[in-house]
Amino acid sequence: MKKLLLLSCVEQFYPKINQVFGENLKNMNVLCIPTAAYAEDNHEWLWPEIEIIKNNVKSFVEFDIAKSDEYGLTAAIKGKDIIYVTGGNTYVLLEHLKRCNLKAILAKHFDNDGWYMGASAGSIVMSDDISYVASLDEPSKANLSDTKGLNLVDFRIMPHLDHNDFVEGIKEIMPEIISDDKELIGINDDQGIMVKGSFIKVI
Question: Residue 134 is part of which domain span?
Fold first, then answer.
């Protein structure tokens, strides 16, 4: 059964995280993929995001997939309970996730009762297509042949609805997005979407 927690910001959502993992979080092993953040010129915001998880789990390993491949990622995920993919450049992230065949790797991870946790870009890539965030991102940094996402959820995610840096840009593109035939779920920085099989809940 697929199990996903899709967030805007880990740091702001963290007070609610026990609603998802309960007391089990402290016994979990986490693989963190910060590749999207490293594609940005300034990623100082990343450190509080990862520290709050790193300090509250059994083990925490960072793994930059831009420097690896499918075999390396498969080996890194072995024995991990949570795959945590940070925010950053959505287009660069999708390029490397596709190259490393994360979708197939996740299928096995879910079979082993594992979780996927994404923040911002890490959430958006789970939808069918990422083109709806083009004006909020920097597509030119990536080398993508198409913008099709991993399509592991049947809705699109719009994070950061209440973030000062994004709110005006989101307002501009929202009419176009909601006129599409795909369901859109928007979340504030302290909210998340929990997916367990066909069950979906905004927390």
Answer: 3-202
How far is residue 14's CA from residue 156's CA, in Å, rounded to a whole number? 22
What pTM, to 2 d.p., does this model score? 0.94
The Cα 89–Cα 184 span in angstroms is 20
Within 37-125, strands assigned E span: 59-62, 82-85, 115-119
Residue pLDDT, tens place only, 50-71: 999 999 999 999 999 999 999 9
DSSP string, 98-118: HHTTHHHHHHHHHHTT-EEEE
Give me the number of domains the chain comprises.
1
Name the residue among 167, 69, 161, 66 with its Cα closest to residue 123: 161
Q: What is the CATH number of the domain that holds 167?
A: 3.40.50.880
